[in-house]
Amino acid sequence: MQGDGKLSKGAIRGIIEEELAKIRGTMDDKSFSQSRFKDAREIFDQVALSADFIEFLTLPAYELLD
Does 18 fall in a domain? Predict the structure, then answer.
């Protein structure tokens, strides 16, 4: 955390890694690899870490829909 109470991008990415590891620990490798967690992470990274404010999470998510 930075002195101003904000989390750095590195800290946010670290939290994401920790949470994905927790989720992965509840699933077998095949189920995890077949899931959309990679897509979800990309969307979250884009929304949370972008220099530009993205109003709706759904906007970048639409691009990944099959």
Answer: yes
Q: Domain total for the chain?
A: 1
Long-range contact set of residues 47-51: C-beta below 8 Å, sequence gap at least 24:
48/12, 49/9, 49/12, 49/13
pLDDT tens for 21-44 read: 999 999 999 999 999 898 889 888
Biggest CA pair distance of the chain: 42
The reply to whether 4 falls in a domain is no
Q: And the tokens for 29? A: 């490798």
Record the pTM: 0.69
